[in-house]
Design brief:
With 218 residues, this protein is mainly alpha-helical. The protein contains 11 helices and 2 strands.
Length: 218
């Protein structure tokens, strides 16, 4: 996890080390914010602030976040159990690709609906998404390729806006020129939409994925 984080932030350190230092020091002092630099669901619906003091209807964002995480997490795990139960009862283990996919989906759910999220909390899922490309059933799957393309695009915009602030200050300069007509809030919400669509496609792919037990159990 430490090495993955170092690898991810190195380009941003080289591009704008002063801004990176400022961001790290700022988010370190935040306590119960809905987001600490992560373009997740709460950024999308513009609920940025203290998770205990912001409400969606009559439910605090903090309680709503926990409810969504529990329900969606259980839903995902139940789907996995139903799909791979037969394999597990014969082998008492799961194929590596199944474990990586479960980690990817649960990490994305946690990042997208959790509070107090830093952008780096998505790193484990991103690493798993790349390792899954080793397996043909993922590499040749259009839904999966589209989902991780959206996930990485959303994460890239998240990092660009978080570590460079206003679009006109974004480095490298050519990226800043492209994004300058757009507001920072719009970019944050666009990033959130990409990650949401990625999560939706990952869940659809999991639901529709076929498991050939005759081959896996021999």
């Amino acid at each position: 996890m430490v090495f993955a984080t170092i690898f991810m932030i190195t380009p941003f350190y080289l591009a704008n080390k002063n801004r990176l230092t400022e961001v790290i020091l700022t988010v370190a002092n935040r306590d119960n914010n809905t987001t600490n630099g992560a373009n997740n669901f709460w950024m999308l619906i513009d609920k940025v602030g203290n998770a205990n003091q912001l409400y969606v209807t009559k439910i605090s964002v903090d309680n709503l976040s926990k409810t969504i995480l529990i329900c969606l997490g259980l839903f995902t795990i139940i789907m996995f159990i139903k799909k791979y139960y037969k394999y597990f009862t014969h082998k008492y283990t799961l194929p590596l690709e199944c474990t990586l996919n479960l980690t990817l989906i649960l990490n994305t759910i946690y990042f997208y609906f959790g509070t107090k999220m830093h952008s780096r909390y998505l790193h484990i899922g991103l690493v798993c998404s790349f390792f899954l490309l080793i397996f043909p059933s993922y590499f040749k799957n259009t839904k999966y390729i589209t989902s991780i393309a959206l996930l990485n695009l959303g994460y890239f915009i998240n990092q660009i806006t978080t570590y460079n602030g206003d679009p006109k200050n974004i480095q490298p300069a050519w990226i800043g020129q492209i994004l300058q007509p757009l507001s920072n809030l719009f970019l944050n919400q666009l990033s959130s939409v990409f990650i949401m669509l990625s999560l939706l496609l990952l869940l659809i792919d999991l639901y529709s994925r076929k498991v050939d037990f005759t081959k896996s159990l021999t």
